[in-house]
Amino acid sequence: MSTSGAHGHATAPATLAAELRGKTGQNPAECYQCGKCSAGCPMAVETLLRPHDVMRLIGGDRRETLLEGESIWLCLTCEACTARCPNGCDPARMIDALREMSVARAPRAVGAFHRSFLDQVKANGRMFEFGLVLEYKLRSGKLLNDVFSTPGMISRGLLKFVPSPIKGVADVRRIFAACEREAARDLHASGADGRDQ
Amino acid sequence: MARIGVFVCHCGENIGRTVDCARVANELRDLPGVAHSVDYKYMCSDPGQSIVKQAIREKNLDGVIVAACSPHMHEKTFRRAVASEGLNPFLAEMANIREHCSWIHEDREKATDKAIEVCRSIVEKVKHNVPLETIRIPVTKRALVIGAGIAGIQAALDIADGGVEVVVVEKDPSIGGHMSQLSETFPTLDCSQCILTPRMVELYQHPNVKLITYAEVEEVSGYIGNFKVKIRQKARSVDADKCNGCGACAKACPNKKVPSEFDTGLGTRTAIYVPFPQAVPNIPVIDRAACALFRGRAKGLKKEACAKCREACSREAIDYDQQDTFIMQDIGAIVVATGYQLYSIGKDQPAGLTGYGEYGYGTIPDVIDGMQFERLASASGPTGGRIVRPSDGKEPKRIVFLQCIGSRDPAKGIEYCSKICCMYVAKHTMLYKHKVHDGQATVFYMDIRAAGKGYEEFTRRAIEEDGARYIRGRVSRLYRDGEVIKVQAFDTLSGEPILMDADMVVLATAMRPQPGIQLLAQTLSASYDQHGFFNEAHPKLRPVETNTAGIFLAGACQSPRDIPDSVAMASATAAKVLGMFSKDQLEREPTVARVDVSLCAGCFHCERVCPYGAITHLEIRDRKGNLVKVVADVNPGVCQGCGTCQATCPSKSVELSGFTDEQIYAAINALVL
Questions:
Q1: Considering only CA atoms, which of A35, A100, A37, A107 is closest in space to residue A69?
Q2: A8 in a domain, yes or no?
Q3: Which end of chain A is more exposed for a tag (fewer CB within 10 A), N or C?
Q4: What is the extent of the structural domain holding A21?
Q5: Which residue of A has its CA nearest to B403?
Q6: B176-196, pLDDT tens digit by residue?
């Protein structure tokens, strides 16, 4: 990661563009709004903010709109936007960095889902759908959401009640531990910079 | 004792604000060798120059220093003033106290001290200046134009009309270039052939023009006014003197399936062919790669596999044994007008370019480039001017144009704007609407750049009167779905995804320099940019010259240009060439390197470092003619006075006149001792 103007300016809060540049090494100003990313985005019909909107709002320092909305969480990270960008931008990486920034302040459901998802992977080394459903419902409080699809999922064998962990689950947990250590260090560093969100 | 005059200029506020010019003049007055020292508000003005002239007369000065701006600005002005008083102009020097002092400092006291130092240093240099004489070199009044597209034709005709001989070299069998392939031209929609072919014929028949087609420049030696050019005349396999252009050979040729370059592969030609009916000269050429006879020979056949064209020719003009020949020409000035090529939409791409896999790499037959559309729309084209799909010959009712293909796309290897595409796409939508009345043209664009006389009005006309739909957004992907092409895009202005059906898609591909241009640039010792376009000497003030004296640039070889720009540039080169040829001798500044033959040991380090190839070998012989030694010699016509040889010479036997070691050391010593 390259450094940028975001560092060492405790007096003036860094712009979102500068902060993301620091995190990704990518300059959001390189986007010239041609829209080729959104033209190829499979989620363009679903999401409020398409990749070129995200790039535009980064330039406009629209922190709240980006971090508190749902759009960045709807990205599938297929990276078609990045592959097609004529000017070498990486919208997928930008959206990823925005998600990292957003975790602490994400809408409850979105944050709850991602946490529950990762907890299952950490516990079993793979997805355990029943565990995910239980944990997500408890975390989000949306107890009755989607309950009517349960019988169908059970009858098709998609919802098992006993987890079947993979062999190397210990290795997976070690990966998680390493990531958590790094995240804690990053959080500490950004806190020292006066940029803690 | 020297009698030097120092003239300190305030340059209005430019110098006077930061430097105390009166103090500079006062302190300089006391230096040994300085006979006169004054300051004045604007030394370059008429009264300012009069002060200098009057002082030379009255104080009998033998050296002049003007402490003012950069020598680039006014050295010539003051040297002219000095010369008008009978003093050798090279005894006058500038001391730069503007760019090197007042503009870059704030502290008035210290800046004034520095200005005094700068002047003292130049005073010491001028004490060692000697009178120099302007170099005069002869000039061959014959121009060479490389490339005979619209730029080359215009340049050659303008020069020829000025009464000067012109040699025109064209690599293709016919002149006319890309413009001859166009259907109609923006912003007036006049027929390209109708305005171009008369110019082509005029060039062919002009008494001052020697036209060499199907030929390439092989070698260039010499220097401004005195180039020697070797031209390779490629073998046409047809005797141009005997041929009367009847066309019987092409009719007789059995191979009629060769893709026509002129029709961008949409039509076919024979193996012996003229590129198009209006070709100049109307003399066919045998494409040896496609001819059965030559393919047979390549396989080692003793017998002639085919000789139908020779049998058909009533004038015995066909010559299967013709070889490449070389033509030598003495040339005074060279105009480069090699034009452009388009970004390829095929899978094979030159180094550094990646191509457009997402648009089908040219595998979807109804995805074509702009030049192919021109041929479809042209009355002389393969379809007789009917716009139809290459795949099935049906008329497309929904046509989509994509702008900026290659251009403004660093990821595909090109970051510049090709400048002409916005205009020719607007033109294409109009041509389409005029031929397919019930059709709909849609354009995907990023920006519309229509900066030219009548250009903005033209693009608006395409939208307002001819109903072209303009959608702002780059297309992500093209793919086939049965007979239609799906266009996956996003309208960035309405914020809506688009999935559109098209019958045909036209890619407005980028302009790139001609292949092999780097080699030609090296042959000419001219520089080129990272894309391969020729570099002009100065982007604003010397746009049609190169850094190599005597070589000029016209048209799209220098950067993407449309026809009006290319023609304007071509006429500008003609003015430059005719101006150069208006004198019998060319004058050069005498600040060139000179070799002291008594000291030179003949190691030729200088020859190896000289960027201009100005060093030659000189044989020193005694009275009986025995060779004593071989030393370096400088061709003053080629030398640009850069001083690299002087810095390299181990025996200090080569020196730059006006910047000798003696002068430079004197100037440095004044500062450091």
A1: A107
A2: no
A3: N
A4: 16-105
A5: A34
A6: 999 999 999 999 999 999 999
